[in-house]
Amino acid sequence: MKKAIQLVVITGMSGAGKTVAVQSFEDLGYFCVDNMPPALLPKFWELVRESGKVNKVALVIDLRSRAFYDEIVEMLRNIGNREFVDAKILFLDASDAELVARYKETRRSHPLAMEGRLMDGIRLERDLLREIKMRAQLVVDTSSLTPRQLREEIFHNFQTAETASFHIEVLSFGFKYGLPIDADIVMDVRFLPNPYYVPALKNKTGLDQNVYDYVMKSAKTEDFYQLFIKMLKGIIPGYEQEGKTSLTVAIGCTGGQHRSVALAKRVGSELKGEYPVKINHRDIDRRKETVNRS
């Protein structure tokens, strides 16, 4: 028997934070669809079920098109009847005063008051969404929430051990090939002993045990490593608490072959005890490419 698809319907008042919500669900690994016409949903579910590759879906449904009002309510009634769907409705709300302030700040028109008063559109939308709000499993009032706080609220309610989103990439690189532009933390280890100048190690990399040992046996390397790993363990929780879903720690030497590779391997291995970690070596094959072209 196939596992039920986890479905979250994101709906609510226009301006209450649906954009932040859908971005949060994307970070939680959900397949997200924004403003799909309800008439297309039967075919969508058929494709999802047949593919067998999607098990978490978040649908943003709002009232940007009045033609879909009646279909939205009917669709939400029927979704729960599908045996392969475990559906929840997340309704985002905010006070009239806060919605007015947000619309004034963005200078956008309310979808139900394109040529009329803003408050008329807000009142009409509240009336149209009353039944959907009553059916929602979770109602979040975003009046006093920052985008980060709304994100935290969504993570608190929908994140599971399987969808823990924060992860770390430890990346080695060579400065001669340029800085990795997506790095959050960059550390230069060109001050450490360089195996490049040892003939027996020159054509190897930091993944080879004898190169790794050469780099690590230096007292200078050990002193640096202990200070660096202590710093990382001290600041990583702050990045996570601020809502980052990933952190890239880049360690660079001259060519990205020896010292940075060895340090990235050791740093990544230690952090794996506390976080999901990927270790990548951006420039480790650059030397081979140069040799092959010559």
Automatic annotation (TrEMBL):
Residues 167-285 form the RapZ C-terminal domain. Gene3D superfamilies: P-loop containing nucleotide triphosphate hydrolases. Keywords: ATP-binding, GTP-binding, Nucleotide-binding. Coiled coil: none annotated. The keyword GTP-binding applies. ATP binds at G12, M13, S14, G15, A16, G17, K18, T19. The keyword Nucleotide-binding applies. Residues 5-160 form the RapZ-like N-terminal domain. One of its GO terms (molecular function) is ATP binding. PANTHER family: RNASE ADAPTER PROTEIN RAPZ. NCBIfam families: PRK05416.1. This is GlmZ(SRNA)-inactivating NTPase. The lineage of its organism: Bacteria, Bacillati, Bacillota, Bacilli, Lactobacillales.
